[in-house]
Design goal:
The chain has about 150 residues and is an alpha/beta fold. The protein has one domain: 2-Layer Sandwich (Nucleotidyltransferase, domain 5), CATH 3.30.420.10. It is about 40% helix and about 25% strand. A five-stranded mixed sheet has the order 3-2-1-4-5, with helices on both faces. Strand 4, helix 2 and strand 5 form a beta-alpha-beta unit. The chain is globular, with a radius of gyration of 15 Å.
Length: about 150
């Protein structure tokens, strides 16, 4: 089954396509850089159209979005929130059979990872996720993408 995990930043969208065949997991990790010359509506349209193409090209069945984590000191980046919103709308309008949006805590819960900070250590690369080769060689955001994709199955 092909899954996609998505992690948004204000200027690019990182994603990992996960092929989960009964415990044998392979990944494709990519970035979609959003052109800085686009105004906000053009950026949102670009992201929506590109991800519809990606879903079709890779025959994605399920999808997950890692949502913005809010801190008490700093509000969310409005551009990131808008991009996450347009991706959520696109998934709801697509042929994807199931999708999930969540923060680290909900991703950990879906994966059965204890709430003792293990998910943060995995994301930071200090602990491996079982079944993923070269976990530590992946970037932090792509590790988040992979965990988010796998969480949509649970």
């Amino acid at each position: 089954m092909r899954l996609i995990g998505i992690r948004v930043t204000p200027h690019k969208v990182l994603y990992s396509i996960v092929d989960d065949n009964e415990g044998s997991i392979s990944t494709i990790n990519q970035d979609l850089v959003i052109p800085v010359s686009f105004n906000v509506p053009q950026k949102l349209k670009y992201v929506r159209k590109t991800f519809l193409d990606i879903l079709g090209e890779y025959a994605i069945v399920r999808a997950g979005i890692k949502l913005t984590e809010y801190s008490g000191y700093q509000g969310p980046d409005i551009n990131r929130v808008m991009i996450e919103g347009v991706i959520q709308e696109m998934l709801a309008s697509s042929k994807v059979e199931k999708y999930f949006t969540g923060t680290k805590v909900s991703i950990a819960a879906r994966l059965g990872i204890s709430a003792d900070g293990t998910i943060s250590r995995m994301i930071d690369g200090h602990e491996n996720y079982p079944g993923i080769i070269d976990w530590q060689s992946l970037g932090k955001e792509h590790r988040e993408c992979i965990l988010t994709a796998l969480a949509v199955n649970n």
